[in-house]
Each structure stands twice: as structure tokens, then as C-alpha cells.
Amino acid sequence: MAGTEAQDYVWSVGQSRRNVLKTDLWRQILAEYCVCRSANAGTVDAEEVEKFRILASGWWDKNGAMKGLHALNPLRVSLVRDGLVRTGAVSPQAAKGPLPLQGLEILDVGCGGGILSEALASLGASVTGLDPCPEVVRAAQFRLSARPRIRDRVKYVCGTVEEGSAGGRRYHAAVASEVLEHVDSLDRFLAGCVASLKEDGSLFVTTVDRTVASYLLGIVAAEYVLGLLPAGTHSWRKFVSPRELQRILKENGCRLRLVHGTLYRPWSHRWSWQTHRGLSYALHAVRS
Fold first, then answer.
1. Tell me, what's the pLDDT at 52?
2. What pLDDT does 267 receive?
């Protein structure tokens, strides 16, 4: 190969490699742009959804990864039932009966495998369980198929709260239990929850405060020392303080009815109410 031809060949190879690099660079930029667009387009965090997809098959194992969630259910049910009694959505007479929530429509946002949805339906409510993970929704539907007494009162939907609120259906109450710490765009998520409510409808939340104590006990101890949850279940930066949560809800036209601390005792496998709110807490707000 002559000198000039060799130079031309080297130049052409170099140019080809530069074109490939440019193409790969643009592909990378485009991919990152698409990821950002996807993240900004809704409230679903794909990494969080993947965490729970892996756990879908064991959702109803009361001694498995969802052990703490099963233990929390009595407190969650009383939060909703008693809150709806206080607002007048449930009469004192009905509250004493076996189906105190009969006639009420409730949206369970981030319902997972349906632990809370089934419990609320057992009290007479018509429940729509909403979750963005198809595998988890299928697990909930499979479980429900074996529950003929409540099967007609529960409907599971794979989707997001913004999609649900855009559909126009309005509920007497919405519940977002152990969900806020797993979503993208907390403001948008809560706006969707509030938008799904009827006037004077109730929003119930249980979540984790963002404190040093919640990091040490809720993440380090619970996930890495005691193994109560799979490691990596929570991200401390996604925890939300009661004050921040109240601010967002006030901006969305809600008035606060209740904020109460909750505490899990792993040695007795029980949750209880407490006045201290620096670990985890429950909140009840009403749409004005």
C-alpha cells in the first residue's frame, strides 16, 4: 500500500471510529433524556417497582418480607374506619355493625398484594386497589379469586394515581399506606390522591419521617441488622416529615384532622400508636 493510500486508509478508519463514537454518544444522551422524560412524566419510580415485583409471590406470607406490613394492618384499618366515623361518612350506629364501611368507595393507592384492600372490603367498602406493578396486581387478583365473600367488592387495577384521578371517578376516601417513600414527585403523587377524592373526602397516609432515628432504626437496624425487610427497601432521602406532608396537602386544598406516631416492636411483632412521630406516623386529612 502506497504512502498516500495508507494515509487515506488510516484517515478513513479514524473517521469511521469518530462517527461510531458520535453515534454512541448521541445514543447515550438520548437514552438519558428519555429516562429523565419518563421520570418527570409521572410518579412511578421504576427501581422501586422492581423491588416489589421481586416480592410479589410472597406478599401473603405472614412470616416473610411483608411480615411487618401484615402486623400493621389492624392499625391501618382502625385509622380508616375511625377517621371516617369522625368525619361523619360513617354513622356511629353503622360503626358498631359488622359492615361499617358499607356504601363507601375507597381507593387503595399502591395496594400491593391487597392486604389492606381485602381488610377494608371485609368491612363492607367497595375498594379499588391501584398499583403500577403488573406482577403484584396479578398476585392480588389470584388471592382475591379464593375470597368469594369479598370478591365482588374489590377491583384491582394496574396503573398510577395520576391516571386514576384523570379518569374522573371520585372516592369517599383514598389510602396511601407505606407508599410515599417509594414514589417519584411527591407533590404530583399527593395531588393525584387529593384529586381522586369527593368533596370532604378523606386521605389517609402512613409513612416514615425523615430523621436520624428513622435512618438508624428504619434502615440500618430493620434492613441490615435484624433483617425485617430486604436490604435496600428504603431510601432515606425519600422519607417525608409530617410538616412537609402537611404543607403539600394544604397547598392541595386539604385540612388536617390527625397526625399520630406509630411504633413497631419486632420482639412482639406488634404495631402501636405513640405520641412521638420521629420514626413513622399516620396522617388523616380531608379535602375541603
1. 80
2. 82
List the Cα angle 204/80/145 in 5-degree steps: 100
Residue whose C-alpha is closest to residue 195's, from 222, 163, 229, 225: 163
Cell numbers that stand for 71 in this block: 402486623
Q: How many helices (H) and strands (E) does the chain have?
A: 10, 8
Separation CA 122–CA 107 (nearest Å): 15
Q: What pLDDT digit, counting tens, does each position of 187-242 carry?
A: 999 999 999 999 999 999 999 999 998 888 878 877 788 777 777 777 888 899 99
Contacts of 77 (CB under 8 A, 6+ apart): 116, 119, 120, 123
DSSP letter string over 73-136? Answer: HHHHHHHHHHHHHHHTSS-HHHHTSS-TTTT-EEEEET-TTSHHHHHHHHTT-EEEEEES-HHH
What is the DSSP code string of 191-238? HHHHHTEEEEEEEEEEEE--SHHIIIIIIIIIIIIS-SS-TTS--GGG
pLDDT attached to residue 190: 97
Other beta carbons within 10 angstroms of residue 100's beta carbon come to 21
Specify whether the CB–CB gap between 126 and 153 falls below 8 A.
yes
Pairing of strands 126-131, 105-109: parallel
Question: Rounded to whole angstroms, how far apart are CA atoms 105 and 115?
Answer: 17
**Stretches in the chain below the pLDDT threshold 50:** 1-41
Give the residues across from 131 on adjacent strands: 158
Per DSSP bridges, beta strands 197-208 and 154-158 are unpaired
Instruction: Indicate the burial class of 90 (C-beta count within 10 angstroms; 0-12, 13-18, 19 or more).
Output: buried
